[in-house]
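for ur thesis appendix - ATP-binding cassette domain-containing protein. copy paste whatever u need, i formatted it the way the template wanted (i think)
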Amino acid sequence: AGSAVHELVVEDVSVRFGGVQALDRVSFTVTPGSLHALIGPNGAGKSTCLNVLSGVYAPTTGGVRYGDHDLTRLPQHRIAAAGISRTFQNLALSPGETVLDNLLVARHRYMRTGFLSAALRTPRSRREAAEHRAAAERTAALLGLDRLLHSRVGELPYGDRKRVELARALCAEPGLLLLDEPVAGMNHGESLRMEQAIGTVQRELGISIVLVEHDMRFVMGLADRVTVLDFGRRIADGTPAEVQRDPHVLRAYLGD
Ligand code: ADP
Ligand code: MG
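the 3d part is after this line
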């Protein structure tokens, strides 16, 4: 029942904030079902790029295409409707509610079968409620959250909460998932679990993932392809092995 998985084409995208050229004619293509990493030093333009892809900012010039959809100037909700989902910061979760309730709220929001119709308890709404619950439980199990379904989100350790955020984004059943620094602030064990969770999502769901990351090492074991940004420009693009030995990349990271 998930969204179709399309090729994403980012073409010559520029974004300017006052005097800052945050992105300068950046292009890359994300193959359907692949994990594409966007890496680079702080201030390189990675988050700006993700914000363009999810409709938070419109590019100054250039375009974004997802299959037959031209996303270039679409608002966030239209991009979400095209099957593109992203994680937001912790505030998107309700800390006083359980993991299961957070996932169910996300599913109801995305699937547009509100609590009102559920409250009428028609046979159809009851069947849909059971389907939502089964889907939320499957997503939780995929990310190793099955034993935490009835824990309050606010009482979970940081690493688990970040996996709940990931699960929440997956409740929209996207074809393309956008992740901005999913392991920022995590300890080693938490990073490993997140890395496993992301790998599992890609393998099991077959969706595309664009992963923004500052730490080059983290993406090397996960990514199919890597685009490297520095000062808003694309300085390299290739397989992890290719970009890892690229002199421009080494210079950008040594200077960081
Ligand atoms: P990264 O995620 O790679 O660290 P960003 O995309 O956040 O980099 O930022 C790229 C550049 O654009 C930086 O110089 C940053 O200060 C600037 N920038 C980002 N967002 C804004 C904004 N909303 N207003 C003004 N400048 C911004
Ligand atoms: Mg950033």
